[in-house]
Amino acid sequence: MQFSPDIKGSLLPFLAVKKLFEHPKTICYPEVKKEQIDGYRGFHTNLLADCIGCANCQDVCMNEAIDMVTIAKDVNPKNASGCIPRIDYGRCCWCSLCTDVCPPNSLKLENECIWADDKADNFLYFPKDK
Ligand code: SF4
Ligand code: SF4
C-alpha cells in the first residue's frame, strides 16, 4: 500500500489565519446599525385617528395573531366598536394581509424591525399610533 500525504488537507487549517486580516462580515450592534430598507415589513403602525375598529385585520389573519382590544379613550368617532388591533408577535409571520384589507389604510408596516425582550408578554404589541 502506497502512502500519499494529503497536503492540501493538511494546509487548510492554516488558511484560517488569513481570516484575521479580512474585513469583518458582522457589525457591532447596537453601536452600529444597518441601513434600513424602504418597504421592509417590520412592526405594525396604526393611525388611530383613521382606524374604524372594523376587525377586518383580525378576520383575515390566518395565524390568529390579532386580537381586537377595547380602548378607554375615544380617539376616533368613526370607530364604532371602540376596539383597536393588538398584534401577537409570537404568531405573526409578517404576511401583511392585515394591512391589505384595512379599509381606511390606517394599519401599515414600518421599516423598524429589531426588538429584543426577555418577557414573552411584551410581544403582545399595540401598533404605534402613526
Ligand atoms: S402580518 Fe399577517 S400574520 Fe401578521 S398580523 Fe398581519 S395578517 Fe396576521
Ligand atoms: S386597523 Fe384597519 S382593518 Fe383593523 S380594525 Fe382598524 S380599520 Fe379595521
Which ions and ligands are bound to the chains? iron/sulfur cluster
Q: Count the helices. How many?
A: 3
What is the chains' assembly state?
single chain
Say what the CATH topology of the domain at 38-125 is: Alpha-Beta Plaits
**What is the CATH architecture annotation of the domain at 38-125?**
2-Layer Sandwich
**Spatial order of strands in the largest sheet:** 2-3-5
Q: Please state the overall shape, judged from the principal axes of the Cα atoms.
A: elongated
> Which regions are unreliable across 5 or more consecutive residues at pLDDT < 50?
none
Total number of strands: 5
CATH class of the domain at 38-125: Alpha Beta
Cα gyration radius (Å): 24 Å
Biggest beta sheet attributes: 3 strands, antiparallel
Mean pLDDT: 91
Characterization of the model:
With 130 residues, this protein is an alpha+beta fold. It has a domain at 38-125: Alpha-Beta Plaits, CATH 3.30.70.3270. 16% of the residues lie in helices and 15% in strands. The chain has helices at 7-18, 56-60, 97-100; strands spanning 44-46, 66-70, 83-88, 107-109, 124-125. A three-stranded antiparallel beta sheet has the order 2-3-5. The radius of gyration is 24 Å and the shape is elongated. The mean pLDDT is 91. Bound molecules: iron/sulfur cluster (2 copies). Residues 60-61, 63, 65-66, 87, 92-98 line the site of one iron/sulfur cluster.
